[in-house]
Structure formats: structure tokens, C-alpha cells
Design a protein that fits this description.
There is one protein chain. The chain has 7 helices and 18 strands. With 356 residues, the chain is α+β, with helices and mostly antiparallel strands. It is globular and about 70 Å long.
Length: 356
């Protein structure tokens, strides 16, 4: 099955299924002599793993990563770097009733129509379980970028409820189970999602990823623009249905006088007076914060009976069992951060190769 690799000079390929014995990633293009240990990767894996609150799936996976190639005596060798994670808490029996039914909102129908076969156990390859290995790749990408680049993510909306940017505090993100930079909104989301969960339903979310310290000049126009690669990276995450860079769609309502980021000089350095364009102009980074935002649809697996069709073409109904996120967007924050890191690392290496 093609389409399992991402990137150019920093290129990773993931493999494995939701209920298979293990999942893994192979990364090519990692520079040699970078200090790297399993503990370096595990710290990021722990932020994504399931079962950490009642607002995420209760599947209990330790997500313990193992490096199997590409590292020797604590440093990268420059050869392909491979990592694996064992699946230890699969409950395939939860999916026996839907083996011949297509779940609305899932990839069941499209995988079956395209390949003539589908792994019905948790969605197989289409499951968000795959994103664990993106986070592992992102951990390595952060090493490539170095300490000068900081990547942070936050949930800015769940259902119809948005954060108040006047109360934005990055230190709050790690203090609540919603990655909310607005402590007050985190409390409101708790009550909202408790109601959604008890009703057997689900809610969508919007996630914002911000990269600070990005060097000027990353991006390869015309077809490999930094923002176009970011859009592809974020859109490739499970359940994502919309991506914007900077102010994104709201720019369509702004006049040209306010939409453009004006410039002045401080000392000998050009500076921008705003960042409506998300740190990218003409597909090339400006040195400002790179800002990407993406919308995640409500979790398709809900407890309500839904109308569908089976593999024999008969109309029927389906009620999904198992352990599912009432808001899958919550766990998308570390994944979005990882994809931002991978895109930036790839473009950093490409920039050095072309421009020195």
C-alpha cells in the first residue's frame, strides 16, 4: 500500500495496524552524531499515549518505544533509524459484530472499495494508533532542529466553545487534560465533554501548533512551499478536515491594509509589526512564529445506532462497541507538534543542502 512515507531529506515511513502485534517507523536522512536515546523519544510518546483521562479512549497502551537500528553508543549513525512499539491492550472481540458492516464516518467503505479487503479490528491501518509512530519521528526531528526551535500545541476549541485569547497562558497547557491555554475554558470543556460522553456521543476540536525560533528561509517554492507541506502534514492526521496557516480563513474578511504584515527596522534588523500570515511568505519562513491550525471532526465511533450498508450491499444498522475518545482532537496535540517538527526538520536539511 503506497502513501506511507512523508518528507524528502528527513523522510519517515510508518507501518503496522491498530490490533497487530506492533507498530513501527523507519526514518531515513537523520544526520549522524546526534545524541539520541529511547528516553529522549519516550518523553514525547508519554504525552500522546491513551488512557490518561476519562476524556480519551481507555485503551491502556504503555507505548514503550524501542530503537532497533540507527543508533550506536548513544548517537545516531546516519543510517536508517528504526523504532517499534508493541500493542499490548487490543480487544479485537469488540469489533466482531461489525466485520461485515461499514461504520459511518470511518474508512471502512473506502478501504474495502479500494483494496477489496479491510482490517475491521479498530480500523487496522486507518486507525489513529498509527500516529504514535509519528510522535516518535517527531522526537527525532526535534533533535535535528536543535534547542533553538520550540514547538508547542494547544486545543483552542472543543465543540462550539473557544478559548479566550486574552487569557492565553502556555503554562496552563500542561496542567489540564485538554491542552487548554485558558484555565477557565478547561473547566467549561470538562462539563461539556462529561455530558457528551454520558450521551454516548462525541465532539470535534480545533488545535493550534506554534513553532518559535524558526530560521528565516525555510521552504522550497513553488510546489514545496513550507506552508503547503505543513498543510499536507496536518491534513494527513486522522479525522482532520481543515487546515489554516496564520489567520487562515479569517483573512478573507480583512481589507488589504490590515491583512498584510507591515515591516519596520529595529537597529539593523527588519521586523514585522504583525503575523497574520503565520510566519510564511511566498512559501518561505520569515523568522516569525510559524502558526498552523487544524480542525478535527467528532469521533465517528459513538454508542448510538446508525444507519449503514453491509458488504453484501444490504441496508442495515450498526452500533459500535469498544473504547473510544469522546473528543479525538485532544490527543491530536502531540501529533500536530510532531508533524510540525518533521516538516521543519525536512526543510532545514533541504535549505542547508541548497543554500549552505
Amino acid at each position: 500500500m503506497a502513501g506511507n512515507s512523508f518528507g524528502h531529506l528527513f523522510r519517515f515511513t510508518t507501518w503496522g495496524e491498530s490490533h497487530g502485534p506492533e507498530i513501527g517507523v523507519v526514518i531515513d536522512g537523520v544526520p549522524p552524531r546526534l545524541p539520541l536515546s529511547e528516553a529522549d523519544v519516550q518523553a514525547w510518546m508519554d504525552r500522546r499515549k491513551p488512557g490518561q483521562s476519562r476524556f480519551t479512549t481507555q485503551r491502556r497502551e504503555p507505548d514503550e518505544v524501542k530503537i532497533v537500528s540507527g543508533v550506536f553508543e548513544g548517537v545516531t549513525t546516519g543510517t536508517p533509524l528504526a523504532m517499534i512499539v508493541e500493542n499490548t491492550d487490543q480487544r479485537s472481540r469488540d469489533y466482531g459484530d461489525i466485520m461485515d458492516k461499514w461504520r459511518p464516518g470511518h474508512a471502512d467503505f473506502t478501504y474495502d472499495a479500494k483494496y477489496g479487503v479491510r482490517d475491521y479490528r479498530g480500523g487496522g491501518r486507518s486507525s489513529a494508533r498509527e500516529t504514535a509512530m509519528r510522535v516518535a519521528a517527531g522526537a527525532v526531528a526535534r533533535k535535528v532542529l536543535g534547542d533553538g526551535v520550540t514547538i508547542r500545541g494547544a486545543v483552542v476549541q472543543i465543540g462550539p466553545y473557544k478559548v479566550d485569547r486574552g487569557r492565553w497562558d502556555w503554562t496552563e497547557v500542561e496542567k489540564n487534560p485538554f491542552w487548554s491555554p485558558d484555565a477557565q475554558m478547561a473547566g467549561e470543556w470538562e462539563g461539556f465533554l462529561d455530558g457528551v460522553r454520558k450521551q454516548g456521543s462525541s465532539a470535534g476540536a480545533v488545535i493550534e501548533i506554534v513553532a518559535s525560533g524558526v530560521p528565516i528561509g525555510l521552504g522550497s517554492p513553488v510546489y514545496d512551499k513550507l506552508d503547503s507541506d505543513l498543510a499536507k502534514a496536518m491534513m494527513s492526521i486522522n479525522a482532520v478536515k481543515g487546515v489554516e496557516i496564520g489567520d487562515g480563513f479569517t483573512l478573507a474578511a480583512e481589507p488589504g491594509e490590515t491583512a498584510a504584515d507591515e515591516m519596520r527596522v529595529e537597529g539593523d534588523t527588519p521586523v514585522f509589526l504583525s503575523n497574520h500570515n503565520g510566519g510564511v511568505l511566498g512559501g518561505i519562513s520569515t523568522g516569525q512564529d510559524v502558526v498552523a491550525r487544524f480542525a478535527v471532526k467528532p469521533t465517528s465511533s459513538i454508542m448510538h445506532e446508525r444507519q449503514t450498508v453491509d458488504r453484501q450491499g444490504q441496508e442495515t444498522t450498526v452500533q459500535v462497541k469498544g473504547r473510544h475518545d469522546p473528543c479525538v482532537g485532544i490527543r491530536a496535540v502531540p501529533v500536530g507538534e510532531a508533524m510540525m517538527a518533521c516538516v521543519l526538520a525536512d526543510h532545514l536539511l533541504r535549505h542547508k543542502a541548497q543554500c549552505g
